Known about the structure:
The structure is a homodimer. Chain A is an alpha/beta fold. Chain A folds into 2 domains: 8-33 and 277-382, Aspartate Aminotransferase, domain 1; 37-272, Type I PLP-dependent aspartate aminotransferase-like (Major domain) (Aspartate Aminotransferase, domain 2, 3-Layer(aba) Sandwich), CATH 3.40.640.10. In chain A, 42% of the residues lie in helices and 14% in strands. The first copy, chain A, has 13 helices and 15 strands. In chain A, the strands form 4 sheets. In chain A, strands 2-10-9-8-7-3-4 form a 7-stranded mixed beta sheet, with helices on both faces. The two termini of chain A are 41 Å apart. In chain A, 56% of the residues are buried. The interface between A and B is large, with 70 and 70 residues.
Amino acid sequence: MQQLRPSTIREILKVTAQPEVISFAGGLPAPELFPVEAVSRAAQAVLADGGSNALQYSESEGYGPLREWIATEMARRGVRASAQDVLVTTGSQQVLDLAGKAFLDPGDVVLTENPTYLAAIQAFQAMEARFVPVPTDAIGLVPEEIPALIAQHRPKFLYTIPNFQNPTGVTLPADRREKLARIAAEHGLTILEDDPYGQLRYRGSDVPPVKHWDTAGRVLYASTFSKIIAPGLRTGWVVAPHEVFLKLLMLKQASDLHTSSFDQRVAHVYLTSGDPMAHVAKIRAAYGERFGVMDAALREEMPKGFSWTHPEGGMFLWITGPKELDALALLEKAVQRKVAFVPGRDFFPGDAGRNYLRLNFSNSTPERIREGVHRLAALCRER
Amino acid sequence: MQQLRPSTIREILKVTAQPEVISFAGGLPAPELFPVEAVSRAAQAVLADGGSNALQYSESEGYGPLREWIATEMARRGVRASAQDVLVTTGSQQVLDLAGKAFLDPGDVVLTENPTYLAAIQAFQAMEARFVPVPTDAIGLVPEEIPALIAQHRPKFLYTIPNFQNPTGVTLPADRREKLARIAAEHGLTILEDDPYGQLRYRGSDVPPVKHWDTAGRVLYASTFSKIIAPGLRTGWVVAPHEVFLKLLMLKQASDLHTSSFDQRVAHVYLTSGDPMAHVAKIRAAYGERFGVMDAALREEMPKGFSWTHPEGGMFLWITGPKELDALALLEKAVQRKVAFVPGRDFFPGDAGRNYLRLNFSNSTPERIREGVHRLAALCRER
């Protein structure tokens, strides 16, 4: 195993656990919006009715009725899949781990957005992968650049977060998704499409997943209940072409046998009682409001030289500061002023500037967002 | 990734799901002994009191109070450890995965008992490890054989299940454990001690873990709540020397971020309310009775040429048949007679005979054990 970089994010999360710190650092959903009572009712129902099954070992593939629910949900998202194509995982993070194990040997190349999700870098680094960033503009990956990268680097797969990307918040337009799928088919490229945030759209219209255009069976689609129910349940899934599915299944079994039988059944009862989508609409509305408040506060208070993305959903926006900005030094001062964010450097698998900040807006109330931006902007003006 | 062998056990489990099949195949605890009501009360308590924390992302290390409980439990088992040494994992299976990632590169050697736990073979095979079996007699690993194997193969670690081993049911005596720890210290050998069954002793006296004698910090100790609460919660742990702990922690984070916040808190409330150890005593008594019934039925009905182990705890016994026996062929006939077991072949990482059977006695009632042995023994007599 190679040296892994420690996760700056999680170290900061610990420092900022005190309530007086306004943290835009973590990637946490709003806990006050968790459907605690409905989950509690679901847990009681699961343990009242066939309770011992919910506590027993179960199939590595996942709980059958939950896989059925996911297959139906996939159709709603524009992807034809049967329950047999669905592997339930311990959060969608585990999909990254399993895909890394299935596809990567030491030295193998993964194509990624630039910047990309920190814990994906870590998962693939555990397999001693190398990263080749795909040129990325204001609306995401540039598909036309990919064939040359394939020829040069023979990547094992491309990792992408097309919706409300982490860390930038950017959404890849439909025409680029279709092109990605076509390039994958033509060049035999595997794509790992990670979609944790897609249901959190508060503006604009849904764009079908890359997997929607995947006629050649080259796309693995990963998603999670972390943002539409709660992350503590660690329940996600992957839809994969059959041969890849079988490999992932064997690796899943060796990794943790199966995902919590209890959590899977709680999720299933929750999803099939009441109106879970109405709850998601509530989350969406709250996050939309919070983004709006953060954006307005930034416009009002940030000095010249700073710009930021305007995501149509998700939990993050991405600030680009003046070239000479050292975001890590800024963070050190910010923590003293009781406000935190994540410096952007660690999200770049290759070399990159130090002048980026990732701000999370889902985990703070509008009042705290205003106050936090106020503290942060004051620091930026002092520079 | 190398070709993995599919798990015969899990494929058989699917075939034997019909209730008319008496299955000695799986490795399942007795579901009628799961503390369903107490777990249900714990789930309600967890969600009533600070419920949103139980559904939020949490630290990769594990839930603090649960780590404290485990540290205290480790002392009871004869191992000095602080909560900081405890990493909570998604079942103890995940410890095998993390240790494999931390220590193994393709081609590296793991020393194992012969036979050993099937899913450990799979976890280390995912890292493309090679297996070197340590000579094993009727009471387990022979420590004296290990120094020569270290010199010859430079193994990355030794994997062992000292209590009621899977698949044989054998328990390694204290003097051999002490020797193992001494050899590890003298030769710089890492030991991964897997102890899922240690609390299931129904005869004889507890033997301290190898970790008890680990003055040199060479032993990783893994255990689980699967057998003392319920496996569906997928909650286990590892106690590791600090440097190894940090590596495992980083790999844990990349694998699934953390183990279910909900399940960890449910386990903790369950363990700290009522008398969980009294419940374990009930499980122990039931398994002891079931072993006794199986042993008596085997003695009464099995033909000459078959012998079996007499475990003092755990869930399995191990039958050695006549040299010419083909246990896989026997299984095919047995399934037609509505009784199932696991052929022993797959538990041997190297070459071995085909004349072994693993029988599980924890998951069947005494009546079904008698009837199942009756069916199986009839087949064995017909050979």
